[in-house]
Amino acid sequence: MRITLEHLRAFVTVADLYSFKLAARSLSRTQPAITFAIKKLEDSIGFRLFQRTTRKMRLTAEGERFLPIARRLIRDFDMALEDLSALAEGRTGHISIASVPSFSTELMPSILREYCDQNPSVAIRVSDGNSSDIKSQLLRNEIDLGLVSSRRFTDQLVFEPILQDEIMMLCHRDHPLAQSTGALEWQQLEPYPKIDAGLHGSGSARDLLGSARLECSTTTSLFAMLRFNLGLAVLPALAARSLPPNLIARPLEGPTLQRTIYLAKRRDWTLSAAAETFIDDAYKVLEKQRTEIETPHIRLCIEPI
Questions:
Q1: Which whole number is the average pLDDT over 27-47?
Q2: pTM of this prediction?
Q3: pLDDT tens, 119-150?
Q4: How distant, in Å, are the alpha carbons of 124, 158, 264 from that of 152?
Q5: I need a surface site. Which of 98, 168, 211, 265 has the fewest CB within 10 A?
Q6: How far apart are CA 277 and CA 119, in angstroms?
Q7: Strand, helix or coil at 250?
């Protein structure tokens, strides 16, 4: 006969309580069912587990040796089920996320704080990158989720709009354009040296800005150049939300350029429960912070929860 987990639980419970009646009550079974389970277990292993008298019951020598083994088997099984349940519910596992830098620095920390507090057993890897590289990582199955600002080559990817912000001008407070308190026209930027922070590669911005004297691959280096008043730059409003001292941002109009940040996923891929839970929690955090995030130049695209 095959030994089942019910047989082992019956044996351990009877051994703990020294009573078939109490064991039956503890396991919500009838006493005959517990007696039958112990008998079948003894028949299967070929020796008696209990010595029974009219007055008391105790484990046999074989029962004493088998008891810790039975406890371990039950514990291992219960732990395995708990691990599977946690994995299914998204409470454990691994998530790999790549994000455009502005979202990563401005919004991701609060999302991760909330998610990590609720899911301490989930390991998360976050990396920065440009949209093209992030989409390539998604297509190569190197990451689970991407936050990008472009939807090109969409056949294998799904995009959900998260946030939209305007392109703004950044410069040192001693720069001549810093003296303006309102919106600037793009043509007002023309006479001044420019620092390319990545937007010169896009068609509309390139046509409006012209060539740049300096190029920076990160906002860290860009802000350093701006602090030395080496030129002006244009960045999305989200990236300009937390500027270092001595730097200012001004809106641009005529035309007003906008950027959209999308949550990108592979189309034919089922996300893990941990990743699905992360998305749900991220939307909840963003909705909770909507009034703090949104400005005249930044707008959340997610529907109110």
A1: 91
A2: 0.71
A3: 888 889 999 989 999 999 998 888 999 999 98
A4: 27, 11, 11
A5: 211
A6: 9
A7: strand
Write the secondary structure of 177-204 as one string of H (helix), E (strand) and C (coil): HHHCCCCEEHHHHCCCCEEECCHHHCHH
Average confidence score pLDDT of the chain: 89
Structure tokens at 55: 């007055």
Partners of 123 in the β-ladder: 94
Sign for the CA dihedral angle at 108, 113, 115, 119 comes to positive
pLDDT > 80? residue 278: yes
Please give the full DSSP string across 41-80, using - where no structure is assigned. HHHHHTS-SEEE-SS-EEE-HHHHHHHHHHHHHHHHHHHH
Helix runs in the chain, H state only: 5-17, 20-26, 31-45, 61-88, 101-106, 108-118, 131-139, 203-209, 219-227, 273-288, 290-293
Domains of the chain listed by start with CATH number: 5-87 (1.10.10.10), 92-161+261-292 (3.40.190.10), 164-258 (3.40.190.10)
